[in-house]
Every structure is written in C-alpha cells, then in structure tokens.
Design a protein that fits this description.
Layout: E1 7-12, E2 21-27, E3 42-51, E4 57-59, E5 64-66, E6 73-77, E7 80-85, E8 87-94, E9 99-107, E10 113-116, E11 126-129, E12 135-138, E13 148-152, E14 158-167, E15 177-187, E16 196-200, E17 203-207, E18 223-230, E19 238-243, E20 247-250, H1 253-256, E21 261-268, H2 283-291
Parallel strand pairs: 8-15
Antiparallel strand pairs: 1-2, 1-3, 3-4, 3-5, 6-7, 6-9, 9-13, 10-12, 11-13, 14-15, 16-17, 17-20, 18-19, 18-21
Length: 298
C-alpha cells in the first residue's frame, strides 16, 4: 500500500469471532515481516494490517491455517472439531448449580501421537470423568472416540483455577504432559428482599426481613442493602442510599411526591463499596459498579 509511516500487524485465529492479537505494534511499511508462528492452532486465521498514521486497515482475503509439523494435542468440542482449545473457563456459576462440559482430544499435528487418560485435577472444585482407556494413539488430524467430562463444583463462593493434565508425546507437552487451564467462579446472588412500605408523617418508612439465602437457596451473610426509588412503578429507579439494617426512611418524600415506588437490593461484599455510590445514580449503573468495584489504592 502506498503511504508514508509504519503499520501494525494483527492476527485473528478464529475469524471473524475472536479478538485480534498483535503480532507487531509498529513495523515499516515495506511489504514483509518475519514472525515466529506460535500456538494455539487454527484453520480459520486472517491477518489485518493497519496504518499507524491513518484510520484504515486491510484484512487478508481468505482464511489460512496454523498447523504443527509434529503431533500437537488439544481439546475440542464435538460440535467444533476444528477449534483447538488450550483452556476452559466455566464463567460464573450460581450456587448451588454445577457446570459440566464434554470434550474430546484431538491431534492437530502432522505426526501420530500417544495419549494417556487425562489425570484427575488436583483441587476439589474441578473433576473429570472419562471412559478413555489407559492410553491410545491419535493419527494426524484424528479426534478421540472417547470423551472427557470436566465438572466445576465449588463448596463456597470464590474464583478457582486448576489444570487438566494429559500425558503424551505431543510436541506441545512440557516434561511429557500437556496442561489445559481450567477456571470457574461460584457466586451466590442474594435473594430479593420483600419490602413493606408505610408512611410516617411526611416520611416513607421501608422495612424487610433479613436476607440470608441466595436466589439458589445457598446461605449468604454480612449483607447490606441499596435502596432505589422512582415516581412510577416501571422506573427508571434511582439510588437513594444504603443501610446495613432492615429498615430505611426516605425523609420528607410525601411533601414533594404523593406516589413513590421502591426497590431494595441485598448486596454481599464490603460496605465500603457504597462510599463510591452517588445519590441519583441510575439503578443499572449502580449494579454494574457493585459487580465491578474500583480497585483499592496502592
């Protein structure tokens, strides 16, 4: 392309659904670039080149593959047999639910490999079950006939990680093992309070029972409550304040609004987070802030 200035080069391993990863954030616009190809492998890659001093980019016209010249072991789902997975994240799982996923093992390389039965993960939060034999061979581009079921089941809220280890002679093994990262988070979303509203003079008085269970029936504790108001039943609702108690008073509201509707949200986590909330914030904005609290100062 005829223009002055450099370019950046990016790779999409599963075009068009995956994010672009940077191969070079700045190189000369001379039509060539040497790059040491890395895994993970894929058969639907594309390159994108963008001008650094302008706003235009160009994507390669067709897909190309990244393959291994030796045996290369990866996980796959049967429905997406050409997508090599090197890790799996179960995401957030609501207590007390259990998350499971079935995988198969596939050789994405051009040489045969020997694969042993996947080992049990080390932690109690992850487990595997499989009918695979003690060991078996996989020819190039062959997927295992047996499946591996990986399960995430945590006893308490938190973020967890582990690895699924498979002994093999594949080129991507380290000390004879390929490790697939496993991640998951268990959450307990507090149940919604049942709010009773009454007026006391010009004030609106709210009360509710203590929330001690999640929406899934798990125990929760150390909660505080965020209070929202709206002049209409359909909202939008706005943040008014918070309390660690099970009562709240909206002082003087009857004086300027004959009708008022309220929603109370039970929150599990440090009450210090409430200090970042501003009266009048829209409910969706507050809930997003509670899900992603600001990092503490260093």
């Amino acid at each position: 392309m005829g223009f002055d200035g450099g370019v950046c080069i990016e790779l999409n391993r599963h075009y068009p659904i995956c994010a672009w990863e940077t191969i070079s954030d700045s190189t000369e616009n001379d039509g060539a670039y040497e790059w040491f190809v890395t895994d993970p492998l894929s058969d639907s890659c594309r390159i994108r080149i963008c001008a650094l001093q302008d706003t235009f980019c160009d994507v390669s016209d067709g897909n190309f593959s990244i393959v291994s010249s030796q045996g290369y072991l990866a996980l796959v789902r049967s429905s997406q047999a050409n997508t090599a997975l090197t890790n799996w994240n179960f995401g957030a799982v609501e207590c007390p639910n259990v998350a499971s996923q079935w995988f198969r093992l596939k050789n994405f390389g051009s040489e045969s490999i020997v694969v042993f039965q996947p080992l049990e993960p080390a932690s109690s939060e992850f487990s595997r079950t499989t009918p695979c034999g003690t060991f078996f061979a996989l020819a190039p581009n062959q997927m295992s006939a047996c499946s591996v079921r990986v399960t995430f089941d945590a006893a308490s809220d938190g973020v967890y990680s582990d690895v699924l280890r498979v002994q093999t002679d594949a080129v991507n093994g380290v000390n004879g093992f390929v490790e697939f990262g496993l991640n998951g988070e268990q959450i307990s979303t507090p149940a919604a309070p049942e709010v009773v509203i009454s007026t006391q003079g010009l004030d609106a008085h709210l009360s509710w029972a203590v929330v001690d269970t999640s929406v899934g029936g798990c125990a929760v504790s150390d909660l505080w409550y965020a209070v929202f108001y709206s002049p209409t039943s359909g909202g939008p609702f706005y943040y008014h304040g918070w309390t660690p108690q099970t009562t709240y008073t909206h002082v003087g509201v009857v004086n300027f609004s004959p009708t008022q509707f309220y929603q109370v949200v039970a929150v599990e986590g440090p009450a210090a987070v409430a200090g970042s909330l501003v009266k009048g914030m829209e409910m969706g904005e507050v809930l997003n802030a509670l899900r992603h609290p600001p990092l503490p100062p260093r």
